[in-house]
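CHAIN AND CONFORMATION:
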Amino acid sequence: MNRLKLWLFALLVMGLAAAGLRWAILDLRKQALEGVDHRLLAAQGGAEAAERALSAELAAVAGMAAQDERLATAVRAGLPSPEPVPPKKRAAPAPPPPTPEQLDGSVDQAAADAVSAAGALFGSPPPGREVRAASREGLSRRPPVDADAAAFLQDALDHKVRRGYAVLSGKLYAGASVPVGDRGALAVFSPLDDAWAAAAVAGTGATLILAGGPKLVASGRPAEAEALARAAGTSLSPSDAGRLGLLDVAPTWLNLKLPRAKSLLGPLPADRVVARPLSGLRGGRMILALPDRPVLAPLVRLEWYSVAALLLVLLLTIVFGFLIKPTEVAAPVPPELVDAARRIEKGDFSTRAPVLAGKVGTVAAALNRAAEAAQAAPVAPASVTSEFFAKAPEPQPAEQADPFAMPVRAARTAPVGEAAVVSDTARLDGANLSGSTFEAAPVPAARPAPVPSRPAPPSPARAAAPAPPPAPPARTTPAAAAAPDAQAGAVRAVGPEMDEEQHWRDVFRDFVRTRGECGESAEGLTYERFRQKLETNKGALVAKYGCKTVRFQVYVKDGKAALKATPVR
């Protein structure tokens, strides 16, 4: 495995793991805050239930006390007396009428006694309970100092039952007022202090804050009550309050002191708060707050544990990457590429490797460029001839047989005589003259030695004597053919006037004979195909080097018959 690939794979896996952990932790955070909101709303419902219970109890106590006869008598005592009737008889003088202060005092005393008697039916009265009572005349003569108490009594005199909150002497109270007879009113108030607030939310873990009086009433966390009240505002749904500070992320099982840390996924709220207005009290609010630290602290620790685990995996991956040895599996080499490389190695620079992909394709492209460069390179000046090597014979399909070819005779080891010209068209091995045999071209060679020209023809007056037949071409022996450099000077001396067709026929006979001497088969090779190849090669060499003609010579190389082409200028 490649070291770089291992590291890249590890980074990819850790990136996906980090993304998955982030998504999971954010989802857990959302679920935790939803759980806090459910608990907060449940605590609010409990506080409201305690509030309704207190209000119902006050209304019941006030209603039972209003039925007290002594209270009704005290309220009626303050009524104006009727017109005096003159006595018929002289009687004892009547006592003086009570003063207004005495009447108001008797109403207050009668109301207190009546409320105590009624409250005894509901258990022991809470400490600090306040009772207010007055007749219509008494309320006009002596209005209460507290405006909220006067409002409760006025509603009762108007024959209205009122429940709500009031501020008496700078303290917050819950109260209820009822009418007494036709001309009196009774109001009962119970204090809402820290003890009552704590009892209202007992067991919920929430903090109850009552705002509206000169001083906040809180069931706990007095130092944070003001900030929580400001953060709550008037929102009727749960909202965030404050920011969660640094947390202890050290594992409990690890006896190690670690610095405190905060969440890696953004700030977290310290509390969730919800508020509700207090009935009948301007600016009054009931606020419930629940801390988030107990449910969010484990998630913050999980974040840091996850980061530590990912860093540990990264460190181990780096160390492991340095320990392993890179192993790269070699790509298989296609047979076509191997065959092309072998042919180029033997000097056949016209061969091209196939187009491949990947690293093998890079090697094939480099091999093709090298072959092109070698093919385009000029031939060394020392070389005077081009060698042509015959290929192994290839079988010819039966349907391509020449119907006019003469029967094939077995190759002979003895030299072929002149009578063999008649059989020049016999089939030999045509594969021996494939295109690759004539692709290499010779460089300009030194001009051959001059050949004595024929004597001038006789004059017309004299009878023309027949010209002697040309000398037979020089034969190349196997021993001489084994040394190509020695045979270079043994090229048949042929003048420009020599018949080129006869030269080609001589070369063909020498080629067939030499193949027989070397033990090679000449089956399928015809003179027409041999001549066509020679003529094609001659044209290419003449066009390339600007020579006059080309002469060919048969020799033996590596135990096989081959040809040399020599340009003649």
User: Anything to note?
Assistant: Residues 80-85, 379-432, 434-497 have pLDDT under 50 and may be disordered. Residues 196-315 form one domain. The CA atoms of residues 454 and 467 lie 9 Å apart.
